[in-house]
Each structure stands twice: as C-alpha cells, then as structure tokens.
Design goal:
transmembrane helix, mainly alpha, two-stranded antiparallel ribbon, 284 residues, DUF6594 domain-containing protein
C-alpha cells in the first residue's frame, strides 16, 4: 500500500489557515484587534446616539405646548397613536432602538476583548517567522499575505490570541524557552511540510512541571527534617529553620503564580511544621 501524500497548502490564505489550525494548544490563533477601528466605531455610534437623543429631546419640548400632548407622554398607546407608526417621531424611536442595541453590543464585545491578553513574545516570534517565510528583517523574506494585509502582524499591542493560556510561572517559562524541543508534538491535521516552526506540547510541559514541583516541594520538606534530625545544637537548628523557610518562600514566590497571601500562608505552614518537629523533641 502506498503512503498518502503529505498535504501541501498553497501559499497565502490556505497556508496561513493551516498553520493557525495545526496547533493543538491553539496558541497560534493570533489575529489583529483593530483597536483604532474599534474605537472609531464606538465614537461614531455614540455620536449618532447623541444626535438621535437631541432630536428626541426636541420632540419632548414640543410636547409641552398643550395638555393633550403632555398626557400622551404618560401612556404608550396614546404616544404611539397620536402621530401614527409611520410618523417621523416613531421612526426616530426605531432608529434609537437599533443604534442603542448596536452600540451596547459593541461596548460588550470590546469589554470582553480587552480582557483577552496578547500573544506572548516567543509565540509571536515563531508566528512571524512562519508568516514571513523566515526572519522578517531578511531581504529574502516575504509575507504570506499581500497588499495592506502584509503588515497585519507588525504591531504586537494590536494582536489577540483566541486561546489564551494561563499566565505561566517562571519555572514553566524557563522550560519552554530552553527545553521546549524535548516536548515536541505533531501538528494537527498535518501542517505544510515547509513550515519553519515546530510545536511544543503545553500539556506535556505542564505535566513535567507538576512532577518537578512535587519532587522539589518534597525535597524541601523531607530534606529539612533530615538535616534538623542530624543537628544537635539548638542555635544551629534555629538558623537552619530560617534558611529552609527562606528557601521555601523564595521557591513558592519565584517559581509559581501564587499570590502574596498564598505565599505567606504556605510559608507559615512550612515554618510551623519545622518548629513543631524541633520543639517536640521528636529526634530523641
């Protein structure tokens, strides 16, 4: 049986779409925010609503001319029937409903998008390497997309990644930056064979970090107990408790994403275990 041919995607939209979709962790789903256009759209919508509101206020001032018109402002049926549904006033109400709905939906969309972080530095660098068929500064490189789309990925502050992973801790970032090649995985659906970017499995890295953190935490606890058990001088024991507590606090604060309160709580619990071990005279 002959082996199936590897898929080859035509350069341009097909190859870029294949590259974005072949990452299992979805970290390559990077798109432009268009922050300037979004702000322009909101400004236009709010100005449109301001004009519609001014027209409606004009109608309200006109309705103060008589008791009958004032009474119509208290009852929807009278308000609707006074000029008819085809009147300019009712058309204005319909325009306000439409513009208000569009404006508030745009506000909610922008609020949601504002909470999505941009791609991290290394991921964007790999993305641009593939997008430009090499280093962007090289004279032989050229973008996958032409025209005004060629500079879509030039501004990192105007980009958004759809699948935003949790902020990595320093230990995870160190492993990703220096040992990512140890956690390679195949691309989903078969990436184009001329892709310049490899994929490291985020799940595999997280599993490795979990095992490593567990071992490191156990060593700090068991190692401290063994050292204190072999130490007979009370003054030395107190000094060792301070040293191990400092090491534990530094490891939790620097190698994890723990908040300050969590760091204080974990350090206090760790120090309490060591103090109880020493004060309980368990060694004898």
């Amino acid at each position: 049986m002959s082996k199936p041919n590897r898929r080859f995607d035509v350069d341009g939209f097909p190859s870029l779409a294949a590259f974005i979709s072949c990452d299992k962790d979805r970290t390559s789903a990077i798109f432009k925010r268009f922050n300037r256009l979004a702000a322009r759209n909101l400004l236009i919508l709010q100005s449109e609503l301001a004009e519609l509101q001014s027209k409606l206020d004009t109608y309200d001032r006109e309705d103060q001319s008589s008791r009958e018109t004032l009474q119509s402002l208290r009852n929807w049926e009278d308000y609707k029937a006074r000029d008819g549904m085809d009147s300019d006033r009712m058309k204005l109400v319909t325009q306000i409903r439409t513009a208000m709905k569009e404006y508030r939906e745009a506000l909610l969309f922008e609020s949601t998008l504002a909470s999505v972080p941009p791609p991290d530095r290394k991921t964007l660098k790999a993305f641009r390497l593939n997008f430009f068929h090499g280093r962007p500064e090289d004279s032989t490189s050229f973008p996958m997309l032409g025209g005004h789309s060629s500079d879509l990925y030039d501004d990192p502050d105007d980009l958004v990644v759809l699948q935003a992973p949790e902020p990595p801790d320093r230990l995870t970032m160190f492993v990703q930056d220096n040992f990512g090649y140890l956690f390679k995985e195949k691309a989903v659906g078969g990436a184009s064979p001329d892709s310049l970017v490899g994929f490291a499995s985020g799940k595999k890295i997280q599993t490795f970090i979990s095992y490593l953190s567990t071992i490191f935490a156990a060593l700090l606890l068991v190692g401290a107990i063994l050292v204190l058990y072999k130490t007979h001088s009370d003054d030395v024991k107190l000094g060792l408790i301070g040293v191990f507590t400092t090491l534990f606090a530094a490891s939790v604060g620097l190698l994890t994403n723990a908040k300050k309160a969590e760091v204080f709580g974990a350090t206090a619990a760790y120090a309490a275990v060591l103090v109880v071990f020493v004060s309980g005279n368990l060694g004898s």
